[in-house]
Amino acid sequence: MTDPLIPAVLAFRDNGTPFSPLYNDIYHSAVGGLEQAHYVFLRGNSLPERWQGRRTFTVLETGFGMGINFLVTWAAWRADPSRCERLHFVSTERHPFTLDDLRSVYAATLSDPGIADLAQTLADAWPMLVPGTHRIEFEDGRVVLTLVLGDAAESLPALRLCADAFYLDGFAPARNPELWTPSIFKALARLAGEGATFATYSSAGDIKRALTQNGFEYRKVDGFGWKRAMLVGHFAPRWRVRRYEPPAPLAVEERHAVVIGAGLAGCAVIERLAARGWRVTSLERHGAVAQDASGNPAGVFHPMISRDDSVASRVTRAGFLYALRRWGELERAGHRLLRGGQGLLQIAADDDEARAISEAIAAFGYPADYVTPVSADDARRLAGTPLTRGGWLFPRGGWIDPASLCAAQFAAAGNRLERRFGVEVARLERFGDQWTVFDTAGNPVVRAPVVIVASAHDAARIAGLQHAPTRSIRGQLTLLPSGTVPSLALPVIGEGYAVPLANGVTLTGATYELDDLDASLRADGHRENLARVAHMLPAFEGAIDPAQAAALAGRVAFRCVTSDRMPMIGQLADEARAAQDAQRLRGAWPLDLPRMDGVYGAFAYGSRGLVWAALGAELIASQIEGEPWPLERDLAEDIDPARFLLRALRQGAVS
């Protein structure tokens, strides 16, 4: 179970130096934080020289603190005309500052106007203080901060990246020994790229031994300010120190990808690849984007709260927060998204659930801008109509028109995107280092080194997967005309949902019918939707005569789900090669499995496409580019399309 975050306590020494009462140590030298960052970490890692001319460069820091090292590194990148194309800065922090304290410490300590401006930009993008990985982009995505909030002893082993430079920061080993243990250095060795460098203000003997034992060579140099010595060095193992190599970019002659499917999953992938400079060919069987489940008039988005902070809750939390950032960037770029005002109410199924979830919210220490429990009276005031019981409010949740999101992502790709509609894809075939996509008539459609299959129910068939158990869930929506039911101030979800649309219509739904392929509207589906909503909203009871249900408007769509209800996101397994080596792979882990070079999946999003699509797209783009993953490795493995093959191998069911 995830531990709750405990924010840092802001304090200052008499000389004005920021100080941590928890660790009884200062955040930076009294000589100067900016100067320390330049001397110890940039100069100690030979930056900016080492990133010059590189496509990407990744810095991994232990202990974000005030973010001074990030700000100074960002400023140096900005000032360097030979800078790398994309700078990734990954940092862990167990006790992050609250936004108010972050602004206060910057106002009190930053005198450099350029750094102060960057600090203001960082503060404006500061994440909600909830555990997990937060990806924040600056400079149109060319500077990416991946901030991992939680205990470094747990988060560092869960990272998947290839570090070019390490900033070994944090409080002094005597004050914060947990950040300087042998297991920490072992985790760093697993992440070190070839020739990776490191720098640290410390020169303690235990740190020297831990570095040497994990493949790092060090040398002592003059320390900063009043400190006599510090350590710098590089990764140069004399023996094997890790089982898996860090991720590397996919080797391709041309950065061209085919994305099959133009719903929420496919459009998100298109936008993320185009933002990195890829040329993308979109293949869609319909005549426009968002025509299947993504074509519903609205969808709700919100996190998921569970008593044990389950895998689904953690993945959904990361996806929800990342989606909000991506949507905001699209809107700032001038793309119009049709969505309602902020706020969504989830109503508990019964009093026991209301009590249990309220206790979970308190136990995890979630901030009020993420989720807050509400009584039945509070819920009534928020919704503008009586509710049967209380629940919890997601202040940043709400509803959005999925088609408007897909259209914005298409538009954001600009001239990097080739749009091809009316193409029914049948299969893929490898020729040399390229994949050829064939249509159902057997004709080759397009060739590219990378293919992303984002076509929901058809994805497993197109990719030729046998171990991808997906099923279809029929979902019928009901549209209630303006004036027929009380208007709601915000969406209400629970056993069903009721969403107030912009035109006064209320959207309710949705039915959940397994393997029912009937696409026609059914009166009993409308009645079912109305009955479920009435259990939450008593004023809806009797608002529509059940005998008139057949006359109501609505829509039928089919959700694609897996047996474990988690999505399929990532590089696809090469099932044929795995079958040939089934005996050896019976005890395999995900990174052991053979993969289809250049083929990735983004499907089986069920009813959570809005919160999973953007994060899934960023994960796939990061895998292709060899960039730091935006999600902890264990969570990525829980949504890995190869997980079902892995289970079959372990059960001896593959031959």
Commentary on this structure:
Its cofactor is FAD. Residues 1-236 are annotated as: tRNA (mnm(5)s(2)U34)-methyltransferase. This is tRNA 5-methylaminomethyl-2-thiouridine biosynthesis bifunctional protein MnmC. By secondary structure, this protein is an alpha/beta fold. Among the domains are: 11-235, Rossmann fold, CATH 3.40.50; 256-292 and 403-469 and 564-650, 3-Layer(bba) Sandwich (FAD/NAD(P)-binding domain). It has 18 helices and 31 strands. The protein is globular and about 85 Å long. The model has no long low-confidence stretch (mean pLDDT 95).
Short description:
Helix content is 29%, strand content 26%. With 655 residues, the chain is an alpha/beta fold.
Jot down its keywords.
single chain, Rossmann fold, FAD/NAD(P)-binding domain, 9-stranded mixed sheet, 18 helices, globular, tRNA 5-methylaminomethyl-2-thiouridine biosynthesis bifunctional protein MnmC
Layout of SSEs?
Elements: E1 11-12, E2 18-20, E3 25-26, H1 33-42, E4 56-62, H2 68-79, E5 86-93, H3 99-109, H4 113-124, E6 132-138, E7 143-149, H5 152-155, E8 163-168, H6 182-191, E9 192-200, H7 205-213, E10 216-222, E11 229-235, E12 256-260, H8 264-275, E13 279-284, E14 299-301, H9 311-332, E15 344-347, H10 351-364, E16 372-374, H11 376-383, E17 391-394, E18 398-400, H12 402-413, E19 417-421, E20 425-431, E21 434-439, E22 444-448, E23 450-453, H13 459-463, E24 470-480, E25 492-493, E26 497-500, E27 506-509, E28 513-514, H14 523-536, E29 553-562, E30 568-573, H15 575-580, E31 595-603, H16 609-625, H17 633-638, H18 643-650
Helix pairs in contact: 1-2, 2-4, 3-4, 8-12, 8-16, 9-16
